[in-house]
Amino acid sequence: MDRDIARRHETAAPQRVPAEPAAAEGTPRTVFAAAVPGVVRVAEALAELPVRRMLRAPSQRVAYQPWDDARKNAFAAAVLQHLAGACPATDDAPAALDQTAMGIVAENSLNCAAVHDAGGRLSYATNTNGADARPDGAEQIANNVQGTHAEMVLLDQFGAQPYFGISKRCCLLCANALRIAGVGSRGNRGDLFDAWKFPTYIIADNARLTSFLGADAMAVYNAVKPEDRLAALRLVETNLKQYQR
Ligand SMILES: [Zn+2]
Q1: pLDDT (tens digit, 9 = 90+) per residue, 122-171?
Q2: I need a labelling partner for 151 at 20 to 30 A (CA). Which of 75, 135, 143, 203 fits?
Q3: How far apart are the first and last CA of the chain?
Q4: Mean pLDDT for the stretch of residues 7-13
Q5: Least confident of 29-43, 45-59, 123-137
Q6: Are 166 and 185 in contact (CB under 8 A)?
Q7: 69 alpha carbon to ligand 1 midpoint, in Å?
Q8: pLDDT, tens digit, for every residue of 206-223?
């Protein structure tokens, strides 16, 4: 019945019926538009009036999710699951540059040294404050933020590089950051610390942060208030280990 009305109208005045390729033939809107195109156009114009947009705005404001225990748990679980898939622990495969790093800080030390070789010019960083052996002619890159692991100091200083020598295999979070930057290393121990600091290389870039946290954790992150997002990053830096099962 409706189709007949539409067809009759098309026969009478086909030039007045605009083509609507996006709508499927025979949907109520198509039929109605074919029968009374002027009414539809007026309705569509009204819908776009600024007043209508203003009235509609409050209901479309972003409703942030609370950064409560349930979301902390969901966020931490999602990050841990992402890390397990993206950064499995590896065997140790030290290269010559890693031997250089072990000459600065012993491999069995709690501290760590990382070395970058720019065509024979060495730069290094440690997560201690001085008093380490220094390779001849090497430049020490200052570590101004307590808790920043040595290889993250180098990442922020030099950006993506082919390889960083490290005095021991890196921790899980450093391994994840180096993976995103495409920096080679001797390997990943797969463990977490209570004190770690995000390199600027990761947190200053949304795509890299997404790659770091994983899409599921990023969805939780994006759903909470901006100040709660900072708390989420702090959770990764200081508390993630507590959420491991
Ligand atoms: Zn680390």
Answers
A1: 999 998 765 677 888 899 999 888 889 999 999 999 999 999 999 999 99
A2: 75
A3: 64
A4: 45
A5: 29-43
A6: yes
A7: 27
A8: 999 999 999 999 999 999
Percent of the chain with pLDDT over 70: 73
Task: Give Cβ neighbours of residue 123 (< 8 Å, ≥ 6 apart).
Answer: 115, 116, 138, 139, 140, 141, 154, 157, 158
CA of 27 to the centre of ligand 1 (A): 59
Token pair in block for residue 181: 């930057």
∠ CA 72-199-222, rounded to 5°? 35
Instruction: Write out the two tokens for 123.
Output: 């730069």
Token pair 């082919």: residue: 162
> What's the gap in Å between 195 CA and the centre of ligand 1?
9
- For residue 67, name the pLDDT band (cuts at 50, 70, 90): very high
Q: Is 131 left (phi over 0), alpha (psi -120 to 50) or beta?
A: left
Residue keyed to tokens 């390779």: 135
> Parallel, antiparallel, or unpaired for β 139-140 and 121-126?
parallel
Distance in angstroms (rounded) separating the CA atoms of residues 58 and 73: 30
Q: Residue 124: which of 94, 171, 164 has the closest Cα?
A: 164
Report strand pairing: 165-166 vs 139-140: unpaired
Q: Cα of 121 to ligand 1 centre, how many Å?
A: 24
With beta carbons less than 8 A apart as the criterion, state whether 33 and 17 touch. yes
